[in-house]
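tmp note - DNA mismatch repair protein MutL
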Amino acid sequence: MSSIIQLLPDHVANQIAAGEVVQRPASVVKELLENAVDAKATDIKLIIKDAGKSLVQVIDNGSGMSVTDARLCFERHATSKIRQAEDLFSLHTKGFRGEALASIAAIAHMEMKTKQDQEELGTHIVIEGSKFVSQEVAVLPVGTSFAVKNLFFNIPARRNFLKSDTVEFRHVMDEFQRVALAHANIHFTFYHNGSEMFNLPPSSFRQRVVGVFAGKTNEKLVPVNEETEIVAIKGFVSKPEFAKKSRGEQFFFVNDRFIKSSYLHHAVMAAYDGILKDGAQPSYFLYLSVPPNTIDINIHPTKTEIKFDDEQALYAILRASIKHSLGQFNVAPVLDFDRDANLDTPYHYKDLEGETPTIQVDGTFNPFTDDKTNKHYSNAGSSFSSGSSSGSSGSNSYSSYKKPEPTASWESLYVGLKQDTEEIGMMSFENEEVTSSLFNDDEIEQTVHKTYQIHKKYIVSPIKSGMVIVDQQRAHQRILYEQFLHNMTVNQASSQQLLFPLNLFYSSTDMEIIRELQLSLVNTGFVFESTTEEHIVISGIPINSTESEVSLVIEQLLSDLQDGIPESSFSQNDTIAKSMAKSMAVKTGTYLTEKEQDNLVNGLFACKDPNISPFQKPTFITMRVEDIDKKFAL
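out:
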């Protein structure tokens, strides 16, 4: 019987390895940028086309490679970072697995140009699907250039798995930001389809964060600095008032390597306990330095997860250091029992002495004398003056006093008062007749109150067969959703103009999304006065929104679209309508007047689909009288 187990060819093994290493163009960007950093480059350029599907090129001025190393780097398990197994627990570099270049070359057209400083000529290698096409000597600058073209050209199924250019570009942007933030001493430039996206010269950590996210990032940063025997922490966290609903601007770096850690994230959130709104997420850019032998990096194919030896101590130190920074910069509330702010003296009154007011009274004035005497006293008057800060005093004449004419009979003042009081007491107040209907006119149950609000969450409306219980938040979401969807379809949205336009600042990544969705937002009622690389100016908003809700609405929209913008226009409009309806709908816990309750119920049942919210949740339930009777049955 012949054997059924056999060794796989190298090109097949490389394609299988590529499934772990290369998932999308962003994976190629990550591997090539990390190799450039490990080569001690001081200037790195990233050039992509079509979100990396057509081209990903990384050019650096690092150490370069010799002719032998240039050919050997494309072999599996070939690496210059480790020599023995013990080196895995003392890593100071990033790419050490030795599978990245071999995996990328197996699924793309790859071109490499490299030259060392001491060499006069460099090496130019072309590979297509793990096959060496050519290798020749060339005149090149010092450093290395990798150009990856036509990713997944020989695996159509994987290429069809890729998302739209917008989604893939966002992933590439994320990988670029992670490497650029971890190495502020390196000059990074980023080009997409011929346009310069970033130009980040060497700078401090704070300047690098501001350069990557632009806007008013510098205003919201609070520095964190703590050194212990276990870990050294430095970086920045955001002020609580700048917290967002999305978790986009949150970065952990351990030994200059970006990682993801829900455990450390919980420590940061614990430090903000009590000073953040529900659901808000702070931004943070934290750099942790730990001994290399206390962490295990090689537990995940992308090396974004790390196992620490003493996680509990690291948790406590991180939480305490952030809490200390927030309190030190007066971001967190502080209690001071020795100071009363009400007793503080304004600065311009600090050295002034108070003056005692003077009072002058005319002792000869008698209000009970006759009119002639009053007239005399009125003309004479009396003065009342008080000292002021300038020491001057003023006088005012009393107005003449006039005795009221005596009433012939004081009892006449009370004539008819008892009759009027009895009439008021006998008055009956009748409720208006409500003509609007919930379902059909014959089902209306005439009651004193048509609707009732329960626990500021549900609206109860009686009908002939029983009652309807409406969830006020879901109902309002359905109403707003259909309104926005109709406005975007018909392009007849109404706007209310703002007296003072709003200036809103966002990161470059968020600005890309806003510019792509600008037309759809205009159709919902927003009016954009201007749009720049860092901020937008809004001069008009939808008529059913308030000025204070604008930033929350756009922030919620960016959070909902962080996984990508739908390609079809209908899907885009549907996503925007859902997001805006969720942000602007009346929330649970909001008191509604009886008129607002009626409008909400009538508006719900005027919708095309009043049964469910835009998020497929029921908006109301009905309870028949028979169902209530069963509850009281013995």
